[in-house]
Design brief:
eight-stranded mixed beta sheet, transferase, 7% strand, alpha/beta, GPI ethanolamine phosphate transferase 2 C-terminal domain-containing protein, three-stranded antiparallel beta sheet, single chain, 55% helix, 1013 residues, Alkaline Phosphatase, subunit A
Length: 1013
């Protein structure tokens, strides 16, 4: 059995290795052009040798970046305006106001990179967002420093990590401690008065975080949102007025830029690609625009990266050489016609130079042809302007045509570069897919057949293939020189795989020969009997009605992933499958209560030969046994006895009419058992209570479906959760959360001792007090002194969880540790999930209790039982409001109980919160497996607490995961240039990789249980 555990560990580790290798090939780090733009390398005017740079029109620059500032918070309808003073300036045409679209992923660190470099960060920056390192790429701040502009910064400390030693003065605030939405902004605002009186800086950057933190904590409809927007409005008004006063004594006017790094979804999060998350305001304020000299607001959108060349040209610094943005024409309208043409030329030349370095046959590109035509028109305009022989109208028309041509050339070149910057490591992708399919092949063989010589060959083949593929991939990625085995062309990949297969086959042949020799030696010495290590397979011998549904449903789900729409709305697939499963289980329970004929029952039970409940047969049943050896001596209760006939009640598998099965009992080994005529029945008839449990389980699933709208098409629709989090419904939210906690205690208290019951009650109470301290729920009493923001209460819950585990560990011989672990997990779910999801946790607990009560009355095998709990876990993932979009990840869960920033703890808590539902059902399966084995009221209950059964569960979960990965990795590879690659396939791939890690951890837990059993 030990070697089976090690082999299962090899399978899951190989699966994890292949997944990581695929992610490395699919999300490579973005490569940028090294070096920095230099003003000495400014291109000349077309047709001349004049390289004079563009003169700036603004002296000072102030950037106010409000994290998660959605466009409608400032530029929305009349009734939704959160910043009235700023909107008043816009309505007076004293600004330039635009809508800016951010590229996905809409998280802070990639957005800061885009705002400073003008490039499009890679999707892998989502993972790197919590560990920012110095940005070595050419950027706007470096150009400011090179031009001797002094920069001061206050706000999100991500800037300080990205741009070390760039600031004259700086003070950072922790951007990831989302529980704080007050001090994090006060620490920024308190520097404004002093800086407005100073003249030693040229650029000031203020990054406010409070709005984003409120969104993460309470959503976009929180009553805290209005006061925070008015606070930001006051800051903008204060700085704007101060700059206007300073401009009266300055040679050049100052520029105030108000923008957001990304938007905010209706749930208060971000990271996805919905309009609410990607659309932000872009507002230019200056004394130059006062008294109606600005422009009317229009909903015309520009790309957020267009801000980089715009600011560079407005302040007279070189455009960063990796920029892909196109200068905003509205912002350049205050230049003279000649300067506008010069600005568009500099922008186009910079992007075209980037095109030349990334595309081989760049001369044939449309952008190059348009740029050539634009330079000709520009040279003609300069000649006509110098001669003065044409009218101003003609010059104006020619200038507009030339600017449009420059802009079209720049956009065309940008689109081409964007398509080439996304490079995939095809070699790593193919090797990863090869390993995944190899793992799945071995899992199927391991599952369905005894582990004999053929299986040994597969294991050696798999291990050698994975080892050789890993060595080759590491070699190819660590050396720059290409070779026949490292190229990504199809021919080289085929040759590489052929060499891997041949070498692995040789290793498998040698290894299996050695194992066979060792087996022969062991058998000759009596160390291994015929019923030895390799004799027992893990797979079931048959399936029933529920099994057919589970197998077909699993296949349909995997098939549905071939459609981007089904990926976005995956929750609908799981809702349909679980509802069908609930109704099927209910129908099976009802059928056993009906007086059906014995033939019908026999026919049904013949489908499932490994039921949870097998019934004793009547004594009058004539049996015929053909033993391997009629005179074989079989060991039972340490005494040798000879059997010619064995009573049917000793066999753990159902025996049906005219059927022959292989059966195995702890006391005997039967080769063939046949029954002439009889029927089989469950140990006892289900009661009305069991039927009620089936109906209640189905009803709970229906209620949870409408609790949180998720997916893409219907997420904006109101749901129960949205209604509960409204400020006017705080009382109802409080009572529903309290009722959910009480219900959880009532369902779980029976599994604990008196001390455990008290500790569980204390944990539920502290969960409620934690949310009350944060102001989300009604507090039972008023707190004295400064509010703790729930840190002490959350830590108290963690202590109670530890005590419950200690109590369960002391009673581990009775397997109470599993029930204690499940109760602890329920407390953790209630603590981390948002308050409106506490009833969801309670309903899941009801479903688990109902399913545990129903299982003794239905006939299904252990692998299929594992699939039942796996389905319930998948549906539970979406019940709590998750989706395949990054925006639904609850960042605030990572800061529960923390008063400082700790990346490792935050990452673990966020992962636990996201996959709380699936992990709950995996732990519930562990408890159900033990309870079915120890149900003394059911005499025919199988022992599901053996090491073999733990391995069956672990292998079943691993097979489901591998099957999904095999299909989706191929799909992601084929669709890597699809329009939705960054909005659908890439986020889904990250979710699949994370869920694979979760399943690996669960499988290792079951392997540990098998080891200690």
């Amino acid at each position: 059995m030990n070697i089976r555990i090690w082999m299962l560990g090899l399978l899951v580790c190989s699966q994890l290795l292949a997944t990581g290798l695929f992610l490395k090939g699919y999300f490579p780090l973005k490569k940028s052009v090294e070096g920095y733009a230099d003003i000495s390398k400014t291109p000349p005017f077309p047709g001349t040798s004049n390289t004079e740079p563009l003169e700036p029109i603004f002296g000072r620059l102030v950037i106010i970046l409000i994290d998660a500032l959605r466009w409608d918070f400032v530029l929305g309808e009349e009734g939704n305006i959160g910043m009235p003073n700023t909107r008043g300036v816009i309505d007076k045409r004293s600004s330039i106001s635009l809508l800016a679209t951010a590229d996905s992923p809409t998280v802070t660190m990639p957005r800061i990179k885009a705002l400073m470099t003008g490039g499009v960060p890679g999707f892998v920056d989502v993972v790197l967002n919590f560990d920012s390192t110095a940005l070595l790429e050419d950027n706007l701040l470096h150009q400011f420093m090179t031009s001797e502009r002094k920069i001061v910064f206050y706000g999100d400390d991500t800037w300080i990590r990205l741009f070390p030693e760039h600031f004259l003065r700086e003070e950072g605030t922790t951007s990831f401690f989302v529980a704080d939405y007050t001090e994090v902004d006060v620490n920024v605002t308190r520097h404004i008065d002093q800086e407005m009186l100073s003249d030693d800086w040229d650029v000031m950057i203020l990054h406010y975080l409070g709005l984003d933190h409120i969104g993460h904590l309470a959503g976009s409809t929180s009553p805290l949102l209005g006061p925070k927007l008015k606070e930001m409005d006051h800051v903008v008004q204060k700085i704007h007025r101060a700059l206007i006063e300073k401009d009266k004594h300055s040679a050049k006017p100052s520029l105030l830029l108000l923008c957001g790094d990304h938007g905010m979804s209706e749930q208060g999060s971000h990271g996805g690609a919905t309009p609410a998350e990607t659309t932000t305001p872009l507002i230019f304020l200056s004394s130059l625009f006062n008294n109606g000299k600005g422009q009317t607001f229009s909903k015309e959108c520009v790309r957020q990266i267009d801000l980089v060349p715009t600011l560079s040209l407005l302040l007279g610094v070189p455009v960063p050489q990796n920029n892909l943005g196109v200068a905003i024409p509205q912002a350049l309208s205050y230049h003279s016609p000649g300067d506008r043409l010069r600005a568009m030329q500099l922008n186009a030349d910079q992007v075209l130079s980037l095109l030349k370095q990334n595309v081989q046959d760049y001369q044939r590109e449309e952008g190059v042809l348009l740029h050539s035509r634009a330079t000709q028109l520009h040279a003609r305009w300069l000649a006509l302007y110098d001669t003065g022989t044409v009218s101003n109208t003609t010059l104006h028309q020619l200038a507009n045509t030339t600017m449009d041509m420059y802009q079209s050339a720049t956009k065309s070149a940008r689109d081409k570069i964007s398509s080439t910057l996304t490079t995939y490591d095809t070699h790593a992708l193919v090797v990863a897919i090869f390993i995944l399919y190899l793992v799945f092949l071995v899992e199927v063989d391991f599952f369905w057949r005894p582990l004999r010589t053929r299986s040994i060959n597969l294991f050696f083949f798999m291990g050698s293939c994975i080892t050789l593929a890993s060595i080759q991939t590491i070699w190819c990625t660590s050396h720059s020189a290409s070779s026949l085995m490292c190229n990504t062309v199809p021919a080289s990949i085929v040759i590489s795989l052929a060499v891997l297969i041949i070498l692995s086959s040789l290793i498998a042949l040698i290894g299996s020969s050695l194992i066979e020799s060792m087996q022969g030696i062991l058998q000759r010495t009596g160390a291994e009997k015929s019923k030895g290590l390799w004799s027992k397979g893990l797979g079931p011998k048959g399936i029933g009605v529920i099994g057919i549904l589970l197998v077909i449903g699993n296949g349909l789900h995997v098939f549905s992933l071939l459609s981007s729409s089904f990926i976005e709305e995956e929750h609908q697939t799981w809702y349909f499958l679980t509802t069908t499963l609930h109704l099927t289980i209910l129908a099976c329970v009802l059928r056993t209560m009906l007086p059906l004929s014995s033939n019908f029952l026999s026919h049904h039970d013949s489908v499932s030969s490994a039921p949870i409940m097998s019934s004793p047969l009547p004594d009058s049943t004539p049996l015929r046994y053909n033993l391997r050896n009629r005179n074989a001596k079989l060991q039972k209760n340490t005494q040798a006895r000879t059997y010619d006939e064995i009573d049917a009640t000793q066999c753990r598998q159902t025996i049906v009419n005219n059927r022959t099965y292989n059966a195995l009992d702890d006391s005997c080994e039967l080769k063939e058992i046949s029954l002439t005529e009889n029927t089989t029945r469950n140990c006892r008839t289900p009661s009305v209570k069991v039927v009620f449990c089936g109906c209640l389980m189905t009803l709970c699933g229906r209620v949870m479906r409408v609790w949180n709208q998720t997916g893409d098409k219907w997420r904006h629709l109101p749901d129960v959760g949205d209604w509960l989090v409204r400020p006017e419904n705080q009382g109802i939210l409080s009572y529903s959360a309290m009722g959910g906690l009480c219900l959880i205690w009532a369902l779980r208290q029976r599994y604990h001792s008196a001390v455990g019951k008290m500790m569980l009650m204390g944990g539920c109470s502290m969960v409620y007090l934690f949310r009350a301290c944060q102001g989300t729920l009604l507090a039972p009493y008023e707190y004295d002194g400064a509010p703790s923001k729930g840190v002490n209460e959350a830590r108290s819950v963690f202590v109670i969880m530890a005590v419950l585990l200690v109590i369960g560990w002391r009673q581990r011989k009775h397997h109470y540790i599993y029930e204690a672990l499940l109760s602890v997990w329920l407390l953790l779910m209630c603590l981390l999930l948002r308050p409106h999801n506490i009833p969801i946790v309670a309903l899941s607990c009801i479903q688990e209790s109902c399913l545990r009560a129903i299982l003794p009355y239905i006939s299904t095998s252990l692998p299929l039982l594992t699939l039942v709990y796996h389905w319930m876990g998948q549906a539970s993932f979406f019940y709590q409001g998750n989706s395949n979009s990054i925006s639904t990840v609850d960042v605030s869960a990572g800061y529960v109980g923390l008063d400082s920033y700790s990346p490792s703890v935050i990452g673990v808590l966020m992962g636990v919160s996201t996959y709380a539902g699936p992990l709950f059902w995996m732990l519930a399966l562990l408890c159900t497996q033990t309870s079915l084995s120890q149900d003394k009221s059911q005499k025919c209950t199988q022992n599901y607490n053996s090491p073999h059964d733990y391995l069956v569960i672990g292998l079943t979960l691993t097979m489901c995961r591998t099957m999904t990965l095999c299909v989706f990795t191929v799909l992601a590879t084929l669709q890597r240039y699809h329009l939705f690659v960054w909005t659908v396939f890439s986020p889904k791939l990250l979710y699949e990789a994370m869920f694979t890690l979760v399943i690996v951890l669960v499988t290792l837990l079951y392997a540990i249980c098998a080891w200690v059993s």
